[in-house]
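Structure ticket #2291
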Amino acid sequence: MTSETSAAKIGILTVSDRASAGIYHDESGPAIEQFLRETLTSPWSPISRVVPDGVESVRDALIALADRDGCVLILTTGGTGPAPRDLTPEGTEAACAKMMPGFAELMRTESLKQVPTAILSRQTAGIRGRTLIVNLPGRPSSIRTCLQVVFPAVPYCLDLIGAPGLQTDPTRCKAFRPGK
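Resolution: structure written out below.
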């Protein structure tokens, strides 16, 4: 028997000046949630936020989702390009104690198979306490591409940092855990 209190909390943070102002309908956050609904078999609940671009807005939202809301995983979308207001990686680094560059390396490698401008992406990932934070691009199709390639490592990473475990549907995403 599972209850909402035993469900892992997963933060979905959309970073966009236009979406936070109501000028643009956020499609990226819902794309992340859809991927998680298709992939996870263990109980979880989303906590979605939309914030404007900026180091402080991203940092503060990530800290609140990790420390106050108790998210074990936070997936961000938007603000990872080279434009002046794209500051999600800086906000993520400010919120994290330990960076995990392998996530970004793999996402860019996979994205380069789709589009040559993937080299412009500045996604990153890091750890804050018992929370894994992963920056994703802003386009829903790119989000799916990136999540499909990195998500097999997410459950084991959460195990290693002492976060509640996540289980995946192996027909959708075969999570890798050494020795299993």
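Closing remark: The beta strands are 8-15, 44-51, 73-77, 98-99, 125-128, 131-136.
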